[in-house]
Design brief:
Elements: H1 4-15, H2 17-24, E1 27-31, H3 37-47, E2 51-55, H4 79-90, E3 95-99, H5 108-112, E4 117-120, H6 125-138, E5 143-147, E6 160-165, E7 168-172, H7 186-204
Parallel strand pairs: 1-2, 1-4, 2-3, 4-5, 5-7
Antiparallel strand pairs: 6-7
Helix pairs in contact: 1-2, 3-4, 3-7
């Protein structure tokens, strides 16, 4: 098995030592491990993020296989456990905190802990709004990168990243949702997830959107 120093050196070769040190020192919380959060988590793991706090209470079912980062062997298992195991196969030296709990208005701040950036990747718009509002109200420094509008089969070019405030970014087309009778399709959901992961990376490296 490779040592931590071997993996870190390889990451530095690809990302440069300066950037990798910034990524290594980051603490990111991913709220929701479905079509958005599962892909964001894998992307952040490949960046060598130092600590990932993964929050979800659900188990994998067969419909999840078609747009989320899970396989048939994961059906019936907690998403937090499956994602932690997948990350260990990529980089076993990343600190992964698996939190198998449902996010509520009362426990939001407790569950996200000391994360610098929170990736909002929940399913329902009401849950999304609740999470974002609570963090904005109760924290003066945490940054939220959220997803909104990725359903259907419209052009991927409509998936964009928008800076709303210095602490809040939104990725997606901003309009397409399940409430419109649209379906969640793997390519478009993954595109939005990569926008979220890319924005998190840019913030950590001091390159936020204007």
């Amino acid at each position: 098995m490779l040592e931590a120093a071997d993996i870190y050196e390889a990451l530095c070769q690809r990302h440069t030592a300066e950037k990798q040190e910034q990524l290594k020192n980051a603490r990111i919380a991913v709220a929701g491990l479905g079509g958005l959060g599962s892909h964001v988590s894998i992307a952040l793991a490949r960046l060598g993020i130092g600590c990932l706090r993964l929050i979800d209470y659900d188990v994998v079912d067969i419909t999840n296989i078609f747009r989320q980062s899970y396989r048939l062997q994961h059906i019936g298992q907690y998403k937090t456990d499956c994602m932690k195991a997948q990350i260990a196969e990529i980089n076993p030296y990343i600190k992964v905190e698996a939190v198998t709990k449902k996010i509520t208005p009362e426990n939001v701040m407790e569950l996200i802990g000391d994360a610098d950036i929170v990736c909002e990747a929940l399913d329902r718009k009401e849950s999304k709004a609740m999470l974002i509002n609570k963090i904005m109200e109760r924290s003066g420094d945490k940054i939220v990168v959220a997803g909104s509008g990725m359903a259907g089969t419209d052009s991927g070019n409509r998936i964009l990243t928008r800076k709303v405030t210095n602490r809040f970014y939104v990725c997606g087309d901003g309009i397409s949702g399940l409430e419109d009778g649209l379906q969640l399709m793997a390519p478009r959901v993954a595109l939005c997830a990569m926008h979220e992961a890319n924005m998190i990376m840019r913030i950590l490296l001091g390159e936020p959107e204007e």
